[in-house]
Structures are given as structure tokens and as C-alpha cells.
Amino acid sequence: MERMDMLVALVVLLGLVGTSTGAVYKVGDSAGWTTIGNVNYGLWASKNKFHAGDFALFTYNKNFHNLLEVSKADYQSCNAASPIATYATGNDSVPLKTAGPHYFLCGFPGHCAAGQKVEINVQKASSAAPSMAPAVAPAPASGDESSSATATATPAPTPNKNGAASTKFSVGVGIVLFLASLCF
Ligand SMILES: *[C@@H]1O[C@H](CO)[C@@H](O)[C@H](O)[C@H]1NC(C)=O
Ligand SMILES: [Cu+2]
Fold first, then answer.
1. Atom of ligand 1 at shortest distance to CA of 24?
2. 55 C-beta closer than 6 A to ligand 1
3. Burial of 7 (0-12, 13-18, 19+ CB in 10 A)
4. How many C-beta atoms lie closer than 10 Å to residue 49's C-beta?
5. Do residues 142 and 168 touch, judged by C-beta distance below 8 A?
6. CB atoms inside a 10 Å sphere around CB 60
């Protein structure tokens, strides 16, 4: 039974490891977050597939640029006056927490209009972990059965009932072996 529990735990653990580390996407690739070179951020975004839990890494010279997350309307009109979030370190790893579109622009005058803006469409996290949860439940119940089967094998036999006792014993061992075989 314990081996079964360990197996279930291992599978659940592997599922969690597979989904807990988000990918990091550097915005603009080697160009980074800039107005130099007319980087096509729309093209960059369309070449990547973002999932909830991933990160968008914006790298830039903080003396000349910043990073604002804004609403769709503000993204379209390049309005930097009412951001949802503001970043200004020059090396901002922005967590893409929720599925759906996320809008970013540079708040320095004229930069958004010059094309320093990006829409990142985030898909739901592809997760196997939740579907594994029900498999954990049945394990404890079968543990009780095997211990009661072992108990029937222990009573001290009287000389007369030797045959009956040894039959009980083999049935008990049989049940234990049968249950054990289910685990492997
Ligand atoms: C920028 O941030 C990323 C992710 O947080 C980190 O791995 C990297 O070392 C940072 N680079 C600099 C120059 O600080
Ligand atoms: Cu800028």
C-alpha cells in the first residue's frame, strides 16, 4: 500500500514540477524595449505563445524609457496618464498572471506613437495537476482491508482445530498477497 501511495505522490509531484516553472520571454528579443530600429513588437508577440504563469522580460535604458501596463483603450490611444501598473528599473520581469490580453507601452513622450507598445495575449496555463487530485483518495481504504485479513491469520489454534486454523491462515495470506499484487 505504501508503495502505491509513493507512486501517486510521485506522479502528482511530477505534474506540479511540470507546470510550476513559467517561461521567460524577452520582449523584442535581442533589441529589447526600445524605439531604436523600429522593432515590430506585434510581430514579436505573434511569434510566441504565452501562458498564465509565464514572464515577459522588458530590458531598456531607464533614462530613456519606462514600462506601463495599461487598459485596451489607453493602449490604442497611447495614453500614459492612467496606468494599471508602472515599471522603471530597466530590467522588469513582468508576471503574466491571468489569461487574456495584456497591454504595455512606454510612457516617455512620443515613444508609444513611434511603436514602442505591445499587446501580449496570454492563454490559460496548460496544467495536468488538478486532474491528478482524485487519484489520491482511494488509497487509505484498501489499507484497512489488508490489516483485517492479517488479523484472521493470528489466532492460536487448539489441537483439534489445527486443519481449520491453517486454512484460515492460507486464506489470510492469499488475501494479503492478492491485495499486494494490485499495488504493483
Ligand atoms: C534581469 O532580470 C532577469 C530576470 O529577473 C535576470 O535573470 C537578469 O540577471 C537581470 N539582468 C540584469 C542585468 O540585471
Ligand atoms: Cu521609450
1. 4
2. no
3. middle
4. 12
5. no
6. 24
Nearest to 58 by CA among 93, 96, 102, 9: 93
- Structure confidence at residue 21 (pLDDT): 76
Mean predicted confidence (pLDDT) in 162-167: 38
Q: Using one digit for the tens of pLDDT, what is the confidence trace for 105-157? A: 999 999 999 999 999 999 999 764 444 434 444 444 444 444 444 444 444 44
Q: Tell me the C-alpha distance between 65 and 41, whole Å.
A: 15
Do residues 112 and 105 make contact, with C-beta atoms less than 8 angstroms apart?
Answer: yes
- Count of H-run helices and E-run strands, the chain: 6, 8
The response to whether residue 90 sits with its C-beta less than 6 Å from ligand 1 reads no
Closest CA to 146 of 176, 170, 171, 168: 176
Global pTM? 0.62
Q: Which CATH superfamily is domain 2-129 in?
A: Cupredoxins -  blue copper proteins (2.60.40.420)
Top mean pLDDT of 70-74, 123-127, 180-184 is at 70-74
Nearest CA to ligand 1 atom 1: 91
Among 72, 97, 98, residue whose Cα is nearest residue 84 = 72
CB of residue 48 inside a 6 A radius of ligand 1: no
Polymer length of the chain? 184
